[in-house]
Amino acid sequence: MIKPLAERLRPASLDEVVGQSHLIGPGKPLRKMAESGTLRSIILWGPPGVGKTTLAKILAATSHLPFEYLSAINAGVKEVRSVIDKARMFGTTVLFIDEIHRFSKSQQDALLGAVEEGLIVLIGATTENPSFEVISALLSRCQVYILEPLGQAELGQVLDRALALDEHIRNLTLEVEETDALFTFSGGDARKLLNLFEIVAESLPEGDKVITDEKVKSALQRNMARYDKNGEQHYDIISAFIKSMRGSDPNAALYWMARMLNAGEDPKFIARRILIFASEDVGNANPNGLLLAEACFRSCEVIGMPECRIILGQTVAYLASSPKSNAAYLAIDGALSLATKTAHLPVPLHLRNAPTKLMKEIGYGKSYLYAHDFPGNFVEQEFMPDQLSGHKLFEPGLNARENDLRKYLKANWKDKYNY
After folding, report:
1. Any idea which fold 232-320 has?
2. 235-248 in b/e burial notation, b at 16+ Cβ within 10 A?
3. Per mean pLDDT, which range of 68-72, 137-141, 235-239 is the poorest?
4. Could you tell me the pTM of the whole model?
Protein backbone atom coordinates (compact mmCIF):
# COMPACT_ATOMS: atom_id res chain seq x y z
CA MET A 1 0.00 0.00 0.00
CA ILE A 2 1.33 3.43 -0.94
CA LYS A 3 2.34 5.63 2.00
CA PRO A 4 0.62 9.00 2.54
CA LEU A 5 2.21 11.90 0.70
CA ALA A 6 3.40 13.53 3.93
CA GLU A 7 5.30 10.38 4.85
CA ARG A 8 6.74 9.95 1.36
CA LEU A 9 8.12 13.50 1.51
CA ARG A 10 9.49 13.37 5.06
CA PRO A 11 12.90 15.14 4.98
CA ALA A 12 15.99 13.01 5.58
CA SER A 13 18.34 15.88 6.46
CA LEU A 14 18.17 19.32 8.02
CA ASP A 15 18.75 20.92 4.61
CA GLU A 16 15.46 19.40 3.40
CA VAL A 17 13.44 20.69 6.35
CA VAL A 18 11.20 23.66 5.59
CA GLY A 19 10.84 26.29 8.32
CA GLN A 20 12.24 26.48 11.87
CA SER A 21 15.24 28.52 10.72
CA HIS A 22 15.58 29.87 14.27
CA LEU A 23 16.54 26.33 15.33
CA ILE A 24 18.17 24.74 12.29
CA GLY A 25 19.69 27.69 10.42
CA PRO A 26 23.48 28.20 10.32
CA GLY A 27 24.86 28.46 13.85
CA LYS A 28 21.47 27.73 15.44
CA PRO A 29 21.16 25.24 18.33
CA LEU A 30 19.74 22.16 16.61
CA ARG A 31 22.02 22.64 13.60
CA LYS A 32 25.05 22.81 15.91
CA MET A 33 23.83 19.74 17.78
CA ALA A 34 23.46 17.78 14.54
CA GLU A 35 26.85 18.88 13.23
CA SER A 36 28.62 17.93 16.45
CA GLY A 37 26.84 14.57 16.69
CA THR A 38 26.45 15.18 20.42
CA LEU A 39 22.78 14.88 21.26
CA ARG A 40 21.30 16.09 24.56
CA SER A 41 17.85 15.47 26.01
CA ILE A 42 15.40 17.93 24.50
CA ILE A 43 11.70 18.63 24.24
CA LEU A 44 10.26 19.92 20.98
CA TRP A 45 7.14 21.98 21.63
CA GLY A 46 4.94 23.18 18.81
CA PRO A 47 1.72 22.63 16.88
CA PRO A 48 1.18 19.55 14.69
CA GLY A 49 2.84 19.26 11.32
CA VAL A 50 5.79 21.59 11.91
CA GLY A 51 8.56 18.97 11.98
CA LYS A 52 8.89 17.62 15.53
CA THR A 53 9.08 13.94 14.53
CA THR A 54 11.21 14.72 11.48
CA LEU A 55 13.75 16.69 13.51
CA ALA A 56 13.86 13.96 16.15
CA LYS A 57 14.70 11.30 13.56
CA ILE A 58 17.31 13.46 11.85
CA LEU A 59 19.00 14.37 15.14
CA ALA A 60 18.99 10.74 16.26
CA ALA A 61 20.61 9.69 12.99
CA THR A 62 23.42 12.22 13.41
CA SER A 63 24.20 10.87 16.89
CA HIS A 64 24.79 7.30 15.57
CA LEU A 65 23.12 5.95 18.71
CA PRO A 66 20.43 3.24 18.88
CA PHE A 67 16.99 4.78 18.31
CA GLU A 68 13.69 3.80 19.93
CA TYR A 69 10.27 5.30 19.28
CA LEU A 70 7.29 5.32 21.64
CA SER A 71 3.92 6.99 21.26
CA ALA A 72 2.48 8.16 24.56
CA ILE A 73 -0.97 7.26 23.26
CA ASN A 74 -0.36 3.51 23.49
CA ALA A 75 2.84 3.10 25.51
CA GLY A 76 3.09 2.77 29.28
CA VAL A 77 5.61 2.16 32.05
CA LYS A 78 6.22 -1.39 30.79
CA GLU A 79 7.33 -0.15 27.36
CA VAL A 80 9.52 2.56 28.91
CA ARG A 81 11.28 0.02 31.14
CA SER A 82 11.80 -2.29 28.18
CA VAL A 83 13.65 0.50 26.33
CA ILE A 84 15.74 1.23 29.44
CA ASP A 85 16.64 -2.47 29.78
CA LYS A 86 17.82 -2.52 26.14
CA ALA A 87 19.91 0.60 26.80
CA ARG A 88 21.61 -1.14 29.70
CA MET A 89 22.59 -3.97 27.34
CA PHE A 90 23.49 -2.01 24.19
CA GLY A 91 24.53 1.40 25.52
CA THR A 92 23.13 4.92 25.45
CA THR A 93 19.92 5.03 23.42
CA VAL A 94 17.94 7.87 21.90
CA LEU A 95 14.30 7.55 22.92
CA PHE A 96 11.76 9.61 21.02
CA ILE A 97 8.41 9.93 22.78
CA ASP A 98 5.67 11.39 20.63
CA GLU A 99 2.96 13.33 22.49
CA ILE A 100 4.90 13.14 25.75
CA HIS A 101 2.26 15.39 27.33
CA ARG A 102 0.00 12.32 27.46
CA PHE A 103 2.42 10.45 29.73
CA SER A 104 1.26 10.30 33.35
CA LYS A 105 3.50 11.32 36.25
CA SER A 106 4.36 7.68 36.99
CA GLN A 107 5.34 7.09 33.36
CA GLN A 108 7.55 10.17 33.39
CA ASP A 109 9.04 9.14 36.74
CA ALA A 110 10.05 5.82 35.16
CA LEU A 111 12.18 7.75 32.66
CA LEU A 112 13.86 10.08 35.11
CA GLY A 113 16.60 7.81 36.47
CA ALA A 114 17.70 6.63 33.03
CA VAL A 115 17.89 10.21 31.73
CA GLU A 116 19.93 11.24 34.79
CA GLU A 117 22.33 8.32 34.28
CA GLY A 118 22.77 9.12 30.61
CA LEU A 119 21.36 5.75 29.57
CA ILE A 120 18.57 7.52 27.70
CA VAL A 121 18.85 10.63 25.57
CA LEU A 122 15.24 11.79 25.54
CA ILE A 123 13.56 13.61 22.69
CA GLY A 124 10.00 14.47 23.63
CA ALA A 125 7.47 15.99 21.26
CA THR A 126 4.46 17.87 22.56
CA THR A 127 1.73 20.18 21.35
CA GLU A 128 1.01 21.25 24.94
CA ASN A 129 2.97 23.62 27.16
CA PRO A 130 5.60 21.37 28.81
CA SER A 131 5.54 23.59 31.90
CA PHE A 132 2.11 22.10 32.64
CA GLU A 133 2.51 18.61 31.19
CA VAL A 134 6.09 17.48 32.00
CA ILE A 135 7.20 16.88 35.61
CA SER A 136 9.66 19.50 36.83
CA ALA A 137 12.44 16.99 37.56
CA LEU A 138 12.37 15.72 33.98
CA LEU A 139 11.86 19.19 32.50
CA SER A 140 14.95 20.49 34.31
CA ARG A 141 17.07 17.87 32.54
CA CYS A 142 15.84 18.80 29.06
CA GLN A 143 16.27 21.84 26.87
CA VAL A 144 12.93 23.02 25.48
CA TYR A 145 12.83 24.21 21.87
CA ILE A 146 9.73 25.92 20.49
CA LEU A 147 8.71 25.18 16.90
CA GLU A 148 6.58 27.66 14.98
CA PRO A 149 3.70 27.18 12.51
CA LEU A 150 4.76 27.49 8.89
CA GLY A 151 4.03 30.72 7.09
CA GLN A 152 2.55 30.95 3.59
CA ALA A 153 5.95 31.16 1.91
CA GLU A 154 7.09 28.02 3.74
CA LEU A 155 3.86 26.19 2.92
CA GLY A 156 4.52 27.13 -0.71
CA GLN A 157 7.94 25.48 -0.46
CA VAL A 158 6.34 22.31 0.92
CA LEU A 159 3.85 22.26 -1.95
CA ASP A 160 6.62 22.84 -4.50
CA ARG A 161 8.55 19.89 -3.06
CA ALA A 162 5.50 17.67 -3.50
CA LEU A 163 5.03 18.73 -7.13
CA ALA A 164 8.71 18.34 -7.95
CA LEU A 165 9.86 15.34 -5.93
CA ASP A 166 6.99 12.90 -5.48
CA GLU A 167 6.73 10.47 -8.38
CA HIS A 168 3.03 9.77 -7.90
CA ILE A 169 2.15 13.50 -7.86
CA ARG A 170 4.40 14.20 -10.85
CA ASN A 171 2.62 11.50 -12.85
CA LEU A 172 -0.71 13.28 -12.29
CA THR A 173 0.70 16.37 -14.07
CA LEU A 174 -1.33 18.71 -11.89
CA GLU A 175 -1.57 22.46 -12.20
CA VAL A 176 -2.12 24.38 -8.96
CA GLU A 177 -4.00 27.46 -10.11
CA GLU A 178 -4.92 28.79 -6.62
CA THR A 179 -3.38 28.13 -3.22
CA ASP A 180 -5.34 30.34 -0.78
CA ALA A 181 -7.68 27.57 0.36
CA LEU A 182 -4.89 25.01 0.68
CA PHE A 183 -2.84 27.36 2.83
CA THR A 184 -5.76 28.65 4.89
CA PHE A 185 -7.15 25.25 5.82
CA SER A 186 -3.73 23.80 6.56
CA GLY A 187 -3.23 26.38 9.31
CA GLY A 188 0.59 26.32 9.20
CA ASP A 189 0.63 22.50 9.37
CA ALA A 190 2.75 20.93 6.60
CA ARG A 191 1.31 17.46 7.15
CA LYS A 192 -2.25 18.74 6.90
CA LEU A 193 -1.34 20.68 3.75
CA LEU A 194 0.04 17.57 2.06
CA ASN A 195 -2.85 15.39 3.21
CA LEU A 196 -5.37 17.91 1.90
CA PHE A 197 -3.47 18.32 -1.36
CA GLU A 198 -3.47 14.56 -1.86
CA ILE A 199 -7.20 14.33 -1.10
CA VAL A 200 -7.96 17.06 -3.63
CA ALA A 201 -5.69 15.53 -6.26
CA GLU A 202 -7.32 12.12 -5.92
CA SER A 203 -10.85 13.56 -5.95
CA LEU A 204 -10.48 15.34 -9.29
CA PRO A 205 -12.57 13.86 -12.12
CA GLU A 206 -10.62 11.98 -14.76
CA GLY A 207 -8.93 14.41 -17.11
CA ASP A 208 -9.18 17.35 -14.67
CA LYS A 209 -5.67 18.53 -13.78
CA VAL A 210 -6.35 21.97 -12.30
CA ILE A 211 -6.59 22.61 -8.54
CA THR A 212 -8.59 25.69 -7.50
CA ASP A 213 -9.78 27.09 -4.19
CA GLU A 214 -13.33 25.96 -4.92
CA LYS A 215 -12.23 22.38 -5.54
CA VAL A 216 -10.24 22.41 -2.30
CA LYS A 217 -13.26 23.62 -0.30
CA SER A 218 -15.47 20.98 -1.90
CA ALA A 219 -13.00 18.20 -1.08
CA LEU A 220 -12.58 19.52 2.44
CA GLN A 221 -16.31 19.41 3.13
CA ARG A 222 -16.46 15.81 2.00
CA ASN A 223 -13.39 14.49 3.75
CA MET A 224 -12.30 16.54 6.75
CA ALA A 225 -13.86 17.33 10.12
CA ARG A 226 -14.83 20.92 10.81
CA TYR A 227 -13.20 21.05 14.25
CA ASP A 228 -9.41 21.11 14.33
CA LYS A 229 -7.64 21.05 17.69
CA ASN A 230 -5.02 23.51 16.56
CA GLY A 231 -6.84 25.61 13.97
CA GLU A 232 -9.01 28.70 14.12
CA GLN A 233 -12.18 26.82 15.03
CA HIS A 234 -10.46 25.34 18.07
CA TYR A 235 -10.09 28.85 19.50
CA ASP A 236 -13.60 29.83 18.42
CA ILE A 237 -15.14 26.86 20.23
CA ILE A 238 -13.18 27.24 23.46
CA SER A 239 -14.17 30.95 23.38
CA ALA A 240 -17.84 30.02 22.95
CA PHE A 241 -17.48 27.51 25.79
CA ILE A 242 -16.03 30.03 28.26
CA LYS A 243 -18.47 32.77 27.27
CA SER A 244 -21.41 30.39 27.70
CA MET A 245 -20.30 29.58 31.26
CA ARG A 246 -19.69 33.27 31.98
CA GLY A 247 -23.17 34.00 30.64
CA SER A 248 -24.67 31.39 33.02
CA ASP A 249 -25.97 29.12 30.24
CA PRO A 250 -25.14 25.52 31.24
CA ASN A 251 -26.89 24.16 28.15
CA ALA A 252 -24.68 26.01 25.67
CA ALA A 253 -21.57 25.38 27.78
CA LEU A 254 -22.22 21.62 27.79
CA TYR A 255 -22.86 21.67 24.04
CA TRP A 256 -19.58 23.42 23.19
CA MET A 257 -17.67 21.14 25.53
CA ALA A 258 -19.26 18.11 23.86
CA ARG A 259 -18.10 19.45 20.49
CA MET A 260 -14.54 19.54 21.81
CA LEU A 261 -14.71 16.08 23.37
CA ASN A 262 -16.20 14.55 20.22
CA ALA A 263 -13.33 16.02 18.22
CA GLY A 264 -10.74 14.40 20.49
CA GLU A 265 -9.73 17.42 22.56
CA ASP A 266 -7.54 16.55 25.56
CA PRO A 267 -9.90 16.66 28.59
CA LYS A 268 -7.08 18.11 30.69
CA PHE A 269 -6.98 21.15 28.39
CA ILE A 270 -10.70 21.68 29.00
CA ALA A 271 -10.31 21.08 32.76
CA ARG A 272 -7.48 23.60 32.94
CA ARG A 273 -9.65 26.27 31.32
CA ILE A 274 -12.47 25.41 33.74
CA LEU A 275 -10.07 25.84 36.66
CA ILE A 276 -9.08 29.31 35.49
CA PHE A 277 -12.73 30.22 34.90
CA ALA A 278 -13.72 29.14 38.43
CA SER A 279 -11.47 31.81 39.91
CA GLU A 280 -11.62 34.49 37.23
CA ASP A 281 -15.39 34.50 36.64
CA VAL A 282 -17.06 32.82 39.64
CA GLY A 283 -14.55 33.80 42.30
CA ASN A 284 -15.81 34.59 45.77
CA ALA A 285 -19.42 34.62 44.63
CA ASN A 286 -19.13 30.84 45.08
CA PRO A 287 -15.66 29.82 46.32
CA ASN A 288 -16.69 26.16 46.30
CA GLY A 289 -16.53 26.38 42.52
CA LEU A 290 -12.73 26.56 42.63
CA LEU A 291 -12.58 23.47 44.84
CA LEU A 292 -14.82 21.55 42.45
CA ALA A 293 -12.78 22.70 39.43
CA GLU A 294 -9.56 21.57 41.11
CA ALA A 295 -11.09 18.17 41.87
CA CYS A 296 -12.28 17.98 38.26
CA PHE A 297 -8.78 18.64 36.91
CA ARG A 298 -7.21 16.00 39.17
CA SER A 299 -9.92 13.51 38.23
CA CYS A 300 -9.24 14.04 34.53
CA GLU A 301 -5.55 13.34 35.19
CA VAL A 302 -6.31 10.11 37.04
CA ILE A 303 -9.31 8.73 35.15
CA GLY A 304 -9.14 9.99 31.57
CA MET A 305 -11.79 9.53 28.91
CA PRO A 306 -14.46 8.35 28.57
CA GLU A 307 -15.36 8.38 32.28
CA CYS A 308 -14.01 11.85 33.06
CA ARG A 309 -16.68 13.32 30.74
CA ILE A 310 -19.12 12.83 33.65
CA ILE A 311 -16.98 14.89 36.04
CA LEU A 312 -16.42 17.55 33.39
CA GLY A 313 -20.16 17.73 32.78
CA GLN A 314 -20.93 18.02 36.50
CA THR A 315 -18.39 20.80 36.99
CA VAL A 316 -19.44 22.80 33.92
CA ALA A 317 -23.12 22.59 34.83
CA TYR A 318 -22.35 23.74 38.40
CA LEU A 319 -20.08 26.65 37.43
CA ALA A 320 -22.35 27.88 34.64
CA SER A 321 -25.25 27.86 37.12
CA SER A 322 -23.28 29.66 39.86
CA PRO A 323 -23.40 33.39 40.65
CA LYS A 324 -20.50 35.24 39.03
CA SER A 325 -17.91 37.69 40.27
CA ASN A 326 -14.66 38.94 38.78
CA ALA A 327 -13.90 41.12 41.81
CA ALA A 328 -10.83 39.15 42.91
CA TYR A 329 -9.53 39.04 39.31
CA LEU A 330 -9.80 42.83 39.01
CA ALA A 331 -8.28 43.29 42.47
CA ILE A 332 -5.10 41.30 41.79
CA ASP A 333 -4.58 42.98 38.42
CA GLY A 334 -5.02 46.35 40.07
CA ALA A 335 -2.62 45.37 42.83
CA LEU A 336 0.03 44.23 40.32
CA SER A 337 -0.25 47.49 38.41
CA LEU A 338 0.00 49.55 41.59
CA ALA A 339 2.93 47.49 42.89
CA THR A 340 4.83 48.10 39.65
CA LYS A 341 4.39 51.86 39.98
CA THR A 342 5.19 52.06 43.72
CA ALA A 343 7.90 49.41 44.21
CA HIS A 344 10.11 52.09 45.79
CA LEU A 345 7.85 52.58 48.81
CA PRO A 346 9.26 51.14 52.06
CA VAL A 347 7.43 48.74 54.37
CA PRO A 348 6.18 50.69 57.43
CA LEU A 349 8.38 50.06 60.47
CA HIS A 350 5.60 48.56 62.60
CA LEU A 351 5.01 45.83 59.95
CA ARG A 352 8.65 44.78 59.69
CA ASN A 353 10.05 41.67 61.33
CA ALA A 354 12.48 42.28 64.21
CA PRO A 355 14.61 39.15 64.73
CA THR A 356 17.60 41.02 66.23
CA LYS A 357 18.09 43.42 69.13
CA LEU A 358 19.34 46.17 66.81
CA MET A 359 16.24 45.95 64.66
CA LYS A 360 14.04 46.30 67.73
CA GLU A 361 16.05 49.30 68.91
CA ILE A 362 15.58 51.15 65.65
CA GLY A 363 11.83 50.57 65.69
CA TYR A 364 11.21 47.42 63.66
CA GLY A 365 7.91 45.93 64.79
CA LYS A 366 7.24 48.73 67.27
CA SER A 367 3.57 49.65 67.73
CA TYR A 368 2.35 46.61 65.80
CA LEU A 369 -1.04 45.53 67.18
CA TYR A 370 -1.73 41.76 67.26
CA ALA A 371 -5.30 41.45 66.00
CA HIS A 372 -6.16 38.37 68.10
CA ASP A 373 -5.59 40.35 71.28
CA PHE A 374 -8.61 42.55 70.50
CA PRO A 375 -12.39 42.00 70.48
CA GLY A 376 -13.59 40.40 67.29
CA ASN A 377 -9.97 39.63 66.33
CA PHE A 378 -9.65 43.04 64.72
CA VAL A 379 -7.94 46.32 65.53
CA GLU A 380 -7.61 49.22 63.12
CA GLN A 381 -4.06 50.06 62.09
CA GLU A 382 -2.23 51.00 58.89
CA PHE A 383 -1.07 48.15 56.64
CA MET A 384 -0.30 50.13 53.49
CA PRO A 385 2.73 52.37 52.89
CA ASP A 386 1.87 55.85 54.14
CA GLN A 387 1.60 57.22 50.60
CA LEU A 388 -1.07 54.63 49.72
CA SER A 389 -3.18 54.91 52.85
CA GLY A 390 -6.84 54.37 52.01
CA HIS A 391 -6.15 53.08 48.48
CA LYS A 392 -8.84 50.45 47.82
CA LEU A 393 -8.10 47.53 45.49
CA PHE A 394 -10.77 44.96 46.36
CA GLU A 395 -14.39 45.84 45.65
CA PRO A 396 -16.65 42.89 46.58
CA GLY A 397 -19.15 41.85 43.94
CA LEU A 398 -22.90 42.34 44.21
CA ASN A 399 -23.87 38.83 45.28
CA ALA A 400 -24.91 37.15 48.50
CA ARG A 401 -21.53 35.79 49.54
CA GLU A 402 -19.56 38.91 48.72
CA ASN A 403 -22.19 41.10 50.35
CA ASP A 404 -21.21 39.31 53.58
CA LEU A 405 -17.56 40.18 52.87
CA ARG A 406 -18.56 43.81 52.23
CA LYS A 407 -20.48 44.01 55.51
CA TYR A 408 -17.49 42.63 57.43
CA LEU A 409 -15.05 45.05 55.80
CA LYS A 410 -17.38 48.02 56.25
CA ALA A 411 -17.97 47.22 59.91
CA ASN A 412 -14.25 47.01 60.63
CA TRP A 413 -12.85 49.71 58.40
CA LYS A 414 -15.80 52.07 58.74
CA ASP A 415 -15.23 54.77 56.13
CA LYS A 416 -11.51 54.35 55.50
CA TYR A 417 -12.00 52.30 52.34
CA ASN A 418 -15.55 53.46 51.61
CA TYR A 419 -17.13 49.99 51.57
Report:
1. Zinc Finger, Delta Prime; domain 3 (1.20.272)
2. eebbebbbebbbee
3. 235-239
4. 0.54
